[in-house]
Each structure stands twice: as C-alpha cells, then as structure tokens.
Fold this protein.
Amino acid sequence: MSGLSLFLPCAAGAEDFLSDEVQRIVGRAHEKSRGGVRLQGGGTEVMRLNLHSRIAQRVLIEVSLTPYRAEQDLYEAAAAVPWEDWFTARQTFKIEVTTQHSPLKSLNFAALRIKDAIADRFRDKTGVRPDVETRWPDARVFAHLTTDTLTLYIDSSGEPLFKRGWREDKGEAPLKETLAAAMIAASGWDGTVPLYDPCCGSGTIAIEAAQLACGVAPGLLRRFAFEKFPAHRASEWASLKEEARAARHAPQAPIFGSDVAFRMVDFAQRNAQRAGVDGAVSLRGGDALQRMPPVDSGGVMLLNPPYGERIEAGGVAAARRTGGRERAQVEEGGDMTGDFFPQLASHWKKHYAGWTAWMLSPDMKLPSRMRLKETRRVPMWNGPIECRLFRFDLVKGSARGDDASGRS
C-alpha cells in the first residue's frame, strides 16, 4: 500500500492538537481540515498512526471522491471502487453514512445503494456476495456526502481508536480516551510536573496521562482492521509493535487521581493495571472539596467534573444540597451541581496556590460561578456537548489561617 490519501477525524476543537501529533508520529506534510487531518501516506503510516495516535478517532483511507446528484450516482461511484483490494467476498462489511448539507432525502436509502453496489461488484467478479454485519464487521466503509460530492473511505482502524483495550470497568458517561488526550495536549502538560485529577471517575485522564508519561503506545493492547487487509505486512507490523514496547520508560513526575466514589476508584485501579501503568499512577478515594494537594511542589490539575447529562457531584456539596443523599440524577430536575463549583474554587484558593487547573465544562459562565478568572478557554466538544476547557492559575485566596493538616 502506497500513495494513499488518509483522513484522521477527531473531536471538534482538537484539530490543532491532532495536527501536532501527526507531525510527531510520521514527520511529514499534512493538511488540517474541518474535523480532522489529511495527509498522504502508505501502509507504514497507516500502521504507525493507528498504533500511536491518542487524539484521532479513526484512520480512514480515501478510495473515491466523485460528484453526485442522485442515489444512482452513489451506486455507480461505489461500484467503480476495487473493494476486492481491501476485503474478500468471504468477509463481512458495514456502511456508515455522514452528511454535510446533502440534498438527499433518505440516508438509509443512500447507504442501501452503496451497499448494493459493493455486493454486486463482488458477485460480478467472484460469484459471491459478501454479507453485511452491523456489529462486528470485518470491513467498515464510510461514505461522506456534501451538497454535491461523495467521498468513500475504507476504515483501517476497526473499533474507534478511543477503545484502547484496557477499559473494562467504567461508570456513568465515561470520558472518551481520545478527548482526554486532547485535553492533556491543550493543557501543555509534558510529564515533567505532577498531574492530578480530583474527579477521576474510572481513571481516563490519569491513565491516559500515565501512558503518555511512560511512552506507552495507546494501540498496543488492541487489534485493527488493517490486520485483515489482503496486502497487510504482518512482519512490519510486528516490528513496529516491538519498537513501541522498547520505547517504554519510567515517568518523570507522579500522576494522581481521586474520586468521591470508592467504587469508581476500584474501577480506575483495575483499568490502570490493564493499561500497564498501575505503578505510575496513584489512585485514592476522597471528596474533591476536602482532599489536600498530593504533593507540595504544585502541578497541573486536569478534570472533567460532573455536568449536564452526567451525574451530580457527590460528597460534601451533595450532602449539603440533598440532606444526606449521596447523589441524584441531574435529569430529574434542574441544576444539581450549583453548590459544588463555588465550594471547589474556595477549596482551591485556600490549599492549591501555585497549581494550574484545567476544567472541561459546557457552562460558559463557569468562571463567574466559581468567582475565578480564567486565563484561557479552549473550545472542545464532548460528543454532542459543546464545552470549553478553562484554565485557572490558582493563587492564595483571602482566607487566613488555613489548616493544611489534612494533607495526604
């Protein structure tokens, strides 16, 4: 495989960070575009990007770019692609369609016409039509429709790249690993100072940071669709993985995580062990409103606190708000986290002077609610939720006589 046009989609707002990452991984010219990065490459680049990218959602290979006006045009464009170069009639496939201002009325019918074209081509060439499998296909075909163009891609990743292979224990609304990686990149954290997530949940941010700090390639624990390509070079792939394993090293600075729910801390510890970084990250239970800094030297806090569709913050704020009930579902009525953020800011002012805090939130007025002045806000999307990653440079508050005896 050579001379391929590659597209790496990412979460909206993460394009700049993905662009920097692609440069580090393959060291070649590329183009940042809306929703991702484009570049030219070959089989080696496909394998390297799947193995090492922390921010991309997939590595897609463009196989066709054609104009269209009606569904029949989609059929003809798909029928002209040599799909037999990518999978066999004995393998299963799936069609996924995305659009941007397409005039077509039915995306389901558009997907059906593309599916028929692929199956008919195999039937004409081999006498056998491949089967469609919607859950675990051998090959995934992505079709993107604009107002007048159809782009067809073959997916080299298989499962989306945020599925690193270590998360088996998770809580409600877990943060995707790719978004956690984008948050780390946006913060500028490079592993040389301590990092702490005081609302760590099942450990996504802390584990992602630990793998980065230890040089652990994010794709080492999983399989990829390109391993089933007819032209796959298994020996080169084995060499690339061995090279990645040899690059592992000890972290320069400690990484910490804590959560008010001890069950989630247990989940995080098991996930860290599977991810191979349990020795590099320290995870403990505790309320974010009460825990003291894990180190005296200062560092970076990075957190994705509960909000919106997610659950209410537990611990002190919840107990004061709900009369002892540990947590409540936000969707049952109104904003249930109103007390948490001002109390958190007050706690930080008293005990975290010298730290830099980065917080992901969909609340554009969060800084005023916390009575903190942000020094930066980075647009990011958490799935369908538009968010901002706020940076707060913490200085000592007006409180006097703060008691730091609870440090641990």
User: Anything to note?
Assistant: Residues 57 and 160 are 6 Å apart (CA to CA). Residues 308-314, 321-336, 398-408 have pLDDT under 50 and may be disordered. The chain has eleven helices and 14 strands.
